[in-house]
Amino acid sequence: VLDSQYGMYVWPCAVVLAQYLWAHRRSLPGKRVLEIGAGVSLPGVVAAKCGAQVILSDSEELPQCLQRCRSSCLMNRLPHVPVLGLTWGRLSPELLSLAPIDIILGSDVFFDPKDFEDILTTIFFLLEKNPEAQFWTTYQVRSADWSVEALLYKWNLKSIHIPLHSFGADKEHLASSSLPGRHTIEMMIISLAQSEGT
C-alpha cells in the first residue's frame, strides 16, 4: 500500500487522465510526451505502453518522487523511459535542453494555489518552445475560489474543457475518490492563445 503523500499515491485524477490517454491511444504512437509532477506516473506509463516516446518528471527537490517514477517504469517493463528532475517555475539545464514535445501531461498538479503560477510559467515556457503542443491536465475542484483563468490570461494561454463523459471517465469507479470529501474531477487542455493580429 503506497503512502498517500504527494507523488506516492495513485490519485483519482491520474486514473481519469490515463482513461483519456487510453481513449486516444491510436493517436499516441510516436508522439513525444512529457509528464510533469509524475509521481507514480500512471498517465505517462499508459502513454508509453501505447507507443508514445515518454519523459517522466517530478521536482528535483523530491528524490523519493523521482525514485517512484523509476520504480513505476521498471514494474511496467519500461526501463528506458527517462526520468528528469524538473521543478515548476525554475529554468534548469534539464528544462532548457528538453527535446521537442507534442503533449504535456499533468494529473492533479493544480493542488496548491501557491504553485499555480509556477506551473503555468513552466507550461508557457514549454509551449513557447513547442507552439503546437498541448497540456492535458486533470484536476480536482477543491474550492469554489479555485481558478486559473486569470493566470491563463496573464501567460497568454487558453483552455478547453473536456467533459469526462466524452471519453468514458464519468463512471463512479474512475472519477471518484476513497479519500475524505467529495471532489469533482475536471479535465482541460491548455495551449497557447493566438497572438494579437494572427
From TrEMBL:
Biological process (GO), any one: methylation
Reactions listed under catalytic activity: L-arginyl-[protein] + 2 S-adenosyl-L-methionine = N(omega),N(omega)-dimethyl-L-arginyl-[protein] + 2 S-adenosyl-L-homocysteine + 2 H(+)
Record-linked InterPro entries: Methyltransf_16, SAM-dependent_MTases_sf
Keyword field: Chromatin regulator, Cytoplasm, Developmental protein, Methyltransferase, Nucleus, S-adenosyl-L-methionine, Transferase
Superkingdom of the organism of origin: Eukaryota
Gene Ontology cellular-component annotations: cytoplasm; nucleus
Subcellular location: Cytoplasm; Nucleus
Chief place of localization: cytoplasm
Family designation: Belongs to the methyltransferase superfamily. METTL23 family.
UniProt subunit comment: Interacts with HSPA5, HSP90B1, TUBULIN, UGGT1 and UGGT2. Interacts with TET3. Interacts with STPG4.
Reported function: Histone methyltransferase that dimethylates histone H3 at 'Arg-17', forming asymmetric dimethylarginine (H3R17me2a), leading to activate transcription via chromatin remodeling. Maternal factor involved in epigenetic chromatin reprogramming of the paternal genome in the zygote: mediates H3R17me2a, promoting histone H3.3 incorporation in the male pronucleus, leading to TET3 recruitment and subsequent DNA demethylation.
Name of the protein this chain belongs to: Histone-arginine methyltransferase METTL23
